[in-house]
């Protein structure tokens, strides 16, 4: 059997352990905000200073997720570390996450959910228009739809990267599937997932009541610039950080 519990240098192992703790804990936030059902959805986090990331095992109940059963993979989706004595498979979306990390080096976290309002927009293949100041703050414009792609290879990852490259949004609605979000960290990507569902719900409800009122582009630009550079405390992880994926825009 392949060795799935390798000996990493102490400093690397400490970093892996920290990311495992974060990723395991953040799955609880998906449940807390009603973004997932059963065992669907996933959070992953890049291991800084390495060519590795951490993701949850496939088909394991959220109640049973612990730091110890988070799986470490290479940026090509190959499992390199699992719990001692275990032979779990990583999330079925591992190839998609790996592709994003390879092609968007500023991304430190990726999240996939099945949140109902965002999935409803994805089922229609429709962008969520930017008609609230909250959306302008968080996403700098509409939340776009990505192409239809099936699980099993890196097709979903390619769709995510192709759609978000050159786009301010940290969320993409993969057509007929659901939302994927990126961030400078796993926590930041989870926040984007929460805000994506909030936008999807709010805009859906507004449209049922009547026509949507657009925000002029220059106002969206100003709101986004202010929120990204001024809002929050100096220690905020997005403060003074470039938009995730910016370094990947050259290809």
Task: Report what the structure shows.
It is a single chain. With 251 residues, this protein is of the alpha+beta class. The chain has a single domain, classed as L-fuculose-1-phosphate Aldolase (3-Layer(aba) Sandwich), CATH 3.40.225.10. The protein is 38% helix and 13% strand. Strands 4-3-2-1-5-8-7-6 form an eight-stranded mixed sheet, with helices on both faces. Strand 7 (171-174) and strand 8 form a beta hairpin. The protein is globular, with a radius of gyration of 18 Å.
Please identify the oligomeric state.
single chain
> Which structural class matches the secondary elements?
alpha+beta
Indicate the percent of residues in helices.
25-40%
Mean pLDDT: 91
Unreliable segments (pLDDT under 50, ≥5 consecutive)? 239-251
* CATH architecture field: 3-Layer(aba) Sandwich
Q: What characterizes the major β-sheet?
A: 8 strands, mixed
Through-space gap between termini: 37 Å
Approximately how much beta-strand content do the residues carry?
5-15%
Order of neighbouring strands in the sheet with most strands:
4-3-2-1-5-8-7-6
Q: CATH-wise, what's the superfamily? A: Class II aldolase/adducin N-terminal domain
Strands, total number: 8
Radius of gyration: 18 Å
Number of alpha- plus pi-helical segments: 7
The overall number of domains is 1
């Amino acid at each position: 059997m392949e060795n799935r519990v390798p000996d990493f240098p102490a400093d690397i192992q400490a970093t892996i352990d920290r990311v495992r703790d974060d990723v395991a804990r953040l799955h609880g936030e998906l449940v807390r905000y009603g973004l997932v059902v059963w065992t669907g959805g996933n959070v992953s986090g890049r291991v800084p200073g390495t060519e590795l990331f951490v993701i949850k095992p496939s088909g394991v109940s959220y109640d049973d997720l612990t730091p110890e059963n988070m799986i470490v993979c290479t940026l090509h989706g190959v499992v390199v570390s699992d719990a001692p004595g275990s032979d779990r498979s990583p999330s079925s979306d591992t190839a998609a996450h790996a592709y994003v990390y390879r092609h968007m080096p500023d991304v430190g976290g990726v999240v996939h959910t099945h949140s109902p309002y965002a999935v409803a927009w994805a089922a229609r293949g429709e962008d969520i228009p930017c008609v609230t100041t909250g959306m302008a703050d968080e996403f700098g414009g509409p939340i776009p739809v990505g192409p239809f792609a099936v699980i099993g290879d890196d097709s979903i990852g390619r769709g995510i990267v192709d759609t978000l490259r050159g786009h301010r949004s940290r969320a993409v609605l993969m057509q007929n599937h659901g939302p994927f979000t990126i961030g400078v960290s796993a926590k930041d990507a989870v926040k984007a997932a929460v805000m994506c569902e909030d936008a999807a719900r709010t805009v859906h409800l507004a449209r049922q009541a009547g026509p949507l009122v657009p925000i002029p582009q220059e106002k969206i630009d100003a709101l986004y610039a202010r929120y990204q550079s001024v809002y929050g405390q100096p220690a905020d992880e997005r403060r003074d950080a470039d938009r995730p994926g910016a370094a990947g825009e050259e290809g």
